[in-house]
Amino acid sequence: MLDRFRRSTMNTIWRIDFVDMKKEIVERRVARSKLINNRGKTTLEMIKRFKDLDSDLGCCSRSNCRFPFVASLAS
């Protein structure tokens, strides 16, 4: 009788831990996707600023550019 009670208690505890773990994984995925989306927006803003600077000031030589990644995307 006691052994059966222990087993059912352990199963319940394991299920609770498993549900908490799944919630945490989902929360991490949501946070990661928000971060990726924010990074994407930031990159797009940098490209837009670079294009604006490029058209306003005339382009520096792209080989000397301080933002080679953005320069390659903007061209």
Task: Label this structure with key terms.
mainly alpha, 75 residues, rod-shaped, 84% helix, 2 helices
Task: Describe the model.
- By secondary structure, the protein is mostly helical.
- It has one domain (2-74).
- The chain contains 2 helices and no strands.
- Helix 1 (2-57) crosses helix 2.
- The protein starts with a helix and ends with a helix.
- The mean pLDDT is 64.
Give the radius of gyration: 26 Å
Order of H and E elements = HH
What share of the residues does DSSP label as strand, in percent? under 5%
> What is the total tally of β strands?
0
Percent helix among the residues?
over 70%
The biggest sheet amounts to: none
Stretches with pLDDT under 50, minimum 5 residues: none
Gross morphology: rod-shaped
Number of helices: 2
Tally of distinct domains: 1
> What structural category do the secondary elements indicate?
mainly alpha
Kindly report the average pLDDT value.
64
Short description:
The chain has helices at 2-57, 68-74. The chain is mainly α.
Question: What's the helix and strand layout?
Answer:
Blueprint: H1 2-57, H2 68-74
Helix pairs in contact: 1-2
